[in-house]
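Hi team, as promised in this morning's meeting, here are the two structures we talked about. I've kept the exact order from the run log so nobody has to guess. The first one is mostly here for context; it's the second one we should focus on when we meet again. Sequence first, then the predicted structure tokens.
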Amino acid sequence: LDEFSTVVEHYCPICLEPKIKRRRLTACGHELCEDCLRNQLRSSLHNRFLCPFDRRSI
């Protein structure tokens, strides 16, 4: 199980692609790739930037 967890952490949980440019959200610590973070910020309503996993403010 630990080995599986280590492998999964190297992929973006949104697009499932390898995280080449990883970005960590400071409020919650979740990681995603730079492209998915940019898409998340572009699609945020009323400039409320929320983590796609736990909805905390970015």
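And here is the second protein, the one for discussion:
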Amino acid sequence: ASFFGRLARDLHASERQVVADLSGEQARAVADAPGAVLKISHEEMVDGGFADDDTEAALLAAARGMVDAGPRAVVVSRAHDPSLLVTREHTYTVRTPRITTVDHRGAGDSMTAGIAVGLGRGLELPDAVRLC
């Protein structure tokens, strides 16, 4: 088992929230762990073999399959398009305020941090994702 998969499972067993921003095999390991919130970009969904293409339908189907396997939720960031949030019970299209992009590097990390802060402050997951 991978380090990230073990870590996510151990933290879940200790009743800690896990918010992960990973790709490839590390994302797959966390996707198999219960209770985690996995943030992954549309490009990483395709490159990692989770989704066949980057259409909304393909991304939603892949995220639903991932949630069925373990994580609490999958958040798919989509650059200029609204993000997708998939839980066992609901699917959300998350629109956030438009901002002027100066440099896209670090945007996913910032989004993940915003989700973690929102959850840490007691927000419901959809509201935490809307912070970003």
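Starting points for discussion:
The chain has one domain: 3-130.
The chain is about 45% helix and 20% strand.
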